[in-house]
Amino acid sequence: MECFWSDLSKHPQCPHGPTLLFGTYENGKLEKFYVCSACRERKTCKFYLKEGEKLTKQQAAKWEQQKKQFISRYRHRSLYVHFNNIMSVTPDNRCYCHTCEQLISKIEKDVMNKHKNHDIKENLTDYEMKHPTEILKPIENSKQEAQYFFTKQTTEDIVNILVKLGATQILCIGTPKIHEYILENYEDTISSLLLDFDGRFHNFFGPLNYCWYNLLNNHFFNESAIHVFKDFLMQNKGKHTYLICDPPFGSRVEPISWTIKKISEFHKKWNNIENETDCLKIMFIFPYFMESIMKQKSNPPGISGGLKDLSMTDYKVAYDNHPLFLNDSNGTKLPSPIRIFTNIPLNLVELPKSNGYRYCKKCQKWVGKENKHCKKCQECTSKNGLTYKHCDICKRCVKPYWKHCETCKRCIVAKHLCGRKPKVTGKCFKCNEIGHTEKECNINEEIQTEKIKKIKKRKVINEKVMINDIKKKKIDDSQEFENEKQTSITKNIKKTSNKLEKKKKKKK
């Protein structure tokens, strides 16, 4: 399945904003269609429309009604007023109803009996009220918006990196932990704006600190939030502005890259920025094994910006509530595969020495303690948090548990099926053709073969030309020789005839 960049303002909309244009190949023919940007399963959002078709009046009215119902779930200003009212009472009178997704008082719960049999958290402290990630239950719907929160250590490390870089404005997309930490510790020196798809944050953050937002189509659910966003990006004439984004890892890279590029362009345009050093600085959280996908698939061919131009740091991002993405100090599990990708020069991104990170002078970047510099590769090669080993046959560093397979002619895990190829339905990143991957692509071989054929043809043609030239020369030379021979015979005949005539005259 392919996802296409296009003008989202012309796309039909579902409750989650403008839809995205996808395409699948059926019998070799590309079929394009519009589907919801936020939900990766049709059961969650059933919007589907083939490209070129139009919604009927009834369908358009139905989706417009659903859109209004979805947006009307939260009244931001009134909810923030209610937050301040709840803050004014003592902690033992504060509650949060997980069932209704709203803050309530003890009176509403016990006396008015409005939330009978509901899932309620009581006795909310001042700290919890200002740190909603401590209250809210993470959303675990992997088909829509599975939610994982950074550990305390990761949160502190990332903010310290940003502080050392001199950040004065930080746009937090899907990073509520970072937003909370900045408001608590750097409210006077750093301004922060949270853009998040989780509408429950309406209950805790004001309209100037939080916007209800869909990253995958750059859509603000509240129109007034667009002005808040613009004012934020224009602070300090756009200087020292950083964007940190932690997206759902199951999302497509194409729409995320489009959004990141769009925000960067807005920042540059609204602040009339000409100096590249003042452009928007990006820190993007994503698995290390998605690096090649980001580089090759996030943008259409020939288009820079977005995720395509980001470089990977060695920092391992850990989450509190994820079973896999943890940094295990006991060494019983592999290190977290989540990394920070950035457009900031890597020598400036100082990683915490307390966690074992060090500066490699040869690579001019901060690396993990396990990342050893390879003299043959001329770089620190580790990606997954383990020390890589160099394979002289493959002429590159590989994971320590890989072995070189003579049948497959490459390094691979010890237990594998030789010659097994996955079924490929998408396009090759190298030649843009269907049916094979980049590793299997023989376009370079074909080009080389074609070049060799052309060279051979040229040689044959040149040889033929040379042979023809030699033949012509021989013919010309022989013709010239015959002419000279004939001329000399004629001259001899004339000489002899002249002599004979002279003799005859003398006799007479």
Automatic annotation (TrEMBL):
The lineage of its organism: Eukaryota, Metazoa, Ecdysozoa, Arthropoda, Hexapoda. It comes from the Eukaryota. Residues 355-419 form the CTCHY-type domain. InterPro entries: DNA_methylase_N6_adenine_CS, Mlase_EEF1AKMT1/ZCCHC4, ZCCHC4, Znf_CCHC, Znf_CTCHY. Keywords: Cytoplasm, Metal-binding, Methyltransferase, Nucleus, Transferase, Zinc, Zinc-finger. It holds the Pfam family N6-adenineMlase. It is found in: Cytoplasm. Residues 492-508 have a biased composition (Basic residues). One of its GO terms (molecular function) is nucleic acid binding. This is Zinc finger CCHC domain-containing protein. GO terms for cellular component: cytoplasm; nucleolus. It comes from Apis cerana cerana. The keyword Nucleus applies. The keyword Nucleus applies. Residues 478-508 are annotated as: Disordered. Residues 427-441 form the CCHC-type domain.
